[in-house]
Amino acid sequence: ADALNVLLIIVDDLRPSLGCYGDKLVRSPNIDQLASHSLLFQNAFAQQAVCAPSRVSFLTGRRPDTTRLYDFSSYWRVHAGNFSTIPQYFKENGYVTLSVGKVFHPGVSSNHSDDSPYSWSLPAYHPSSEKYENTKTCRGPDGELHANLLCPVDVADVPEGTLPDKQSTEQAIRLLEKMKTSASPFFLAVGYHKPHIPFRYPKEFQKLYPLENITLAPDPQVPAGLPPVAYSPWMDIRQREDVQALNLSVPYGPVPADFQRKIRQSYFASVSYVDTQVGQLLSALDELQLASSTVVVLTSDHGWALGEHGEWAKYSNFDVTTRVPLMFYVPGRTAPLPEAGEKLFPYIDPFDSASEPMEPGQQAMDLVELLSLFPTLAGLAGLRVPPRCPIPSFHVQLCREGQNLLKHFQFRAVEGDPPVHA
Amino acid sequence: NPRELVAYSQYPRPADSPQWNSDKPSLKDIKIMGYSIRTIDYRYTVWVGFSPQEFLANFSDIHAGELYFVDSDPLQDHNVYNDSQGGALPWSLMP
Q1: What is the ipTM of this complex?
Q2: CA A135 to chain centre
């Protein structure tokens, strides 16, 4: 049978604040719809709650103690070992591999090249409007432009009249259209920048979360028994102008309650904004009749603390910062193959209050690690699963430190399909 | 057996107390590494001495610990690590 394509969607700093993970407040209908056709892992954890180390870890299938990247300033091929990556492995197996947006963390940790040419068939695409992300484009109550944490924008007003994730979705759809007629299977990785800070999103999404509906975190105090070494002082949001103006004490704050609710409101609004981007991408996959030949994975690099334990970022070992969404749609395995003309992923508008709550898909409760993405994706695509790594494995180019999760994909056979074998 | 399933994570720190670079210490400034073991029942973390030159953690140099039981403390607000060290852990909290 033809090789399955792969669409890997990585959403930066997304914690499982999603309808399909039981969140009653957040509107994420398109991701929930994907989940309803997927196997969803309820207890998936990142190996380090910060961008570059987590991404290099799961993209190489090695733990941070093997990649030896705990910060942002080394490139594993030079610093630790010439470890193969997931896209590299697919490329070596005949796939056209493509990167859009934030897949590898940019800079030293991916050799200032998103690890091209090893990982990608073409140079990675980065949205041009990304360069304005941390500039003064947020209109404050004073009518002036600031570099704020909370940054609902009028898209027509911002430089280039667009936002990075919108550009990424447009580029990804262009690539899908091109790959539709390609003889080779594709591995397309799309990295969305939101809800990473600053919370810069189309301001209409704020309407989904009226402030009066936003509560504080259930446990907003720094726990009495928390060792000081475990606490993250959330230094990055303090650099933003609107947070600076609060004159918060270091390291424990606290953030004033009304501003806590505004942070939470903007995080959720950013999630719904990204959900619309995922929805447009998946409906394009449908329109191009690629949904029956493409595995879709949605995950994130780590979570984010929204006031729990008095913290406002990642940078810790708490569940809220390490737990991530992880779901796999596998055509004919997690959902029946779509009939001719049937749409699996029609776009759903989060503002459409009439949209039905989604039927949940298959669920797995076992604890799993993002490390497992490499062996599991290889297995689902029918490639040979890399062997387990010896300890140490610095000298081994291709091996895996994570479990292969294929055993979770053995369901009772989907009607009409041959029995599913492990 | 779901109890055999474990997820590991880790986080580096430059010092025992929060400071300006606690969130993102450069490799050369990492002095402590927090290693977490997650099982279906509990979350257990030890913060141990770490040498960035040798990339070695020293598990006999324990700076602090955390222990949370998922059923009784799902939000991880009641660290019972110290109780567990003295063997004084209430029976009800055992997994």
Answers
A1: 0.94
A2: 23
